[in-house]
Amino acid sequence: MSSCVLAGARLRPYDPRVSGAPMTVLFDGSCRFCTRSAHRIQRRLGRGRVALANFQEPGVLERHPGVTRDAAMQRMHVVTGDGRIFAGAEAFARLLAEIPVVGWIAFLYDVPGLRQLAELAYRFIARNRYRLFGRTETCDGGTCHLHGR
């Protein structure tokens, strides 16, 4: 992944100084954990900085052609205002970088070995999210029209 240059300083793409435009978080609206997490992120950062989009809703992925349904089912995606796409633990690091005071923690994602551990942990949780945290009410009871269960 390339770095960006801003005012003479080399910055990682998820550095909060790179863009000021709102980001869109593409989340799984059928997952309780994903839905709660997305809403917490938006409350923390504000609606002016983060828009939420449940990729399970019709038309959402068509607005973001760089993200397929299969990719969205595997990992959360963050689309920046300038169109860059981040996924998985890197998307989380991008969001974390936006939070005042604690945003510096996002730079730990670049520490050798920590990136791999973060991605492993993210993949485990994403792969088991329905079993660990359950589905939203629209998918409980075995009548989910989105999943055929």
- Radius of gyration, CA atoms, in whole angstroms: 16 Å
| Low-pLDDT residue spans | 1-11, 13-18, 139-149
* Mean pLDDT rating: 81
What percentage of residues falls in helices of 4 or more residues?
A: 25-40%
For the terminal residues, how far apart are their CA atoms?
Answer: 39 Å
From N to C, what is the helix and strand string?
Answer: EEEHEHEEHHH
Number of strands: 6
| Biggest sheet details | 4 strands, mixed
Class per helix and strand makeup: alpha+beta
Give the spatial strand order of the biggest sheet: 4-3-5-6
**Dominant shape:** globular
- Helices, by number, come to 5
Share of β-strand residues: 5-15%
What's the structural blueprint in terms of helices and strands?
Layout: E1 4-6, E2 9-11, E3 23-27, H1 32-45, E4 50-54, H2 69-74, E5 77-79, E6 85-87, H3 89-96, H4 114-127, H5 129-133
Parallel strand pairs: 3-4
Antiparallel strand pairs: 1-2, 3-5, 5-6
Describe it for me?
A hairpin with a 5-residue loop joins strand 5 (77-79) and strand 6 (85-87). This protein is globular. Mean pLDDT is 81; it is low at 1-11, 13-18 and 139-149. It has helices at 32-45, 69-74, 89-96, 114-127, 129-133, and strands at residues 4-6, 9-11, 23-27, 50-54, 77-79, 85-87. 32% of the residues lie in helices and 15% in strands. The chain has 5 helices and 6 strands. Strands 4-3-5-6 form a 4-stranded mixed sheet. Strands 1-2 form a two-stranded antiparallel ribbon. With 149 residues, the chain is an alpha+beta fold. It starts with a strand and ends in a 16-residue tail after the last helix.
